[in-house]
Description:
- By secondary structure, this protein is α/β, with parallel strands linked by helices.
- It has a single domain (7-206), classed as Rossmann fold.
- The chain is 42% helix and 21% strand.
- It is built from eight helices and nine strands.
- It has helices at residues 20-32, 43-55, 60-65, 85-101, 113-116, 126-139, 156-164, 195-206, and strands spanning 7-12, 35-40, 69-72, 78-79, 82-83, 106-112, 143-150, 168-172, 175-178.
- The strands form two sheets. A seven-stranded mixed beta sheet has the order 3-2-6-7-1-8-9, sandwiched between helices. The chain has a two-stranded antiparallel sheet with strand order 4-5.
- α1 (20-32) packs across α2 (43-55), α4 (85-101) packs parallel to α6 and α7 crosses α8 (195-206).
- The longest helix is centred in the middle third of the chain and has 17 residues, at 85-101.
- It is globular and about 50 Å long.
Amino acid sequence: MEHVPRHHCLVYEGSPSRLIPVLAAAICEKLQQNYRCFYLNSPEMVSEMRSCLEAGGLDLAAETSGGALVLSSAQDHLESGRFDADAMLRGLEETLQQSLRDGYRGLWASGDMGWEFGPAREFSQLLEYERRLEKFFRKNPEIIGVCQYHADILPRKAMRQGFLAHPSVFINESLALLNPHYAELHSQTRQTENSAEIDSSLERLLQLEFAI
């Protein structure tokens, strides 16, 4: 059976506020499909997401109090301010399994990688984390994820690695593009090859206008 990518990256530049409407649309769609939705970002972005969802007519109080929607700035997965991949994956596994026990179809999750990696902004674990995350997605068909990569704050190496590690690129709630540069999980060298070609593809994606 052919694997359908559910582990998406979203690469962008400029204000993260421009992503709020398209991610809010995705959240509303997945809530209607009986997914628990988890959005992880800075307190400022969480506040903007709340406002956008409410302005769009979502009963935010009902969705959050009932547990269908989780808007969070928690960084419990950090160890002394540094990213801990094991802790992050354990938390994701627990959230998915609890969602299934609670009767949801699955879990839709999106997080900003700059926020997830904490104030230290030390990205040595990023590629291995994304590879392990893709294995987790392949093992658990009930999960869908969007990893947000902000080109204005992340090092270019981190942008390249994040892009290579995702089988698809998120455009909006109804469209994701297959990533022609996707590095298979067993590859140890692909991420260091064809940097100019990879950067060119990233630049094209950064020029996209997100639309709902």
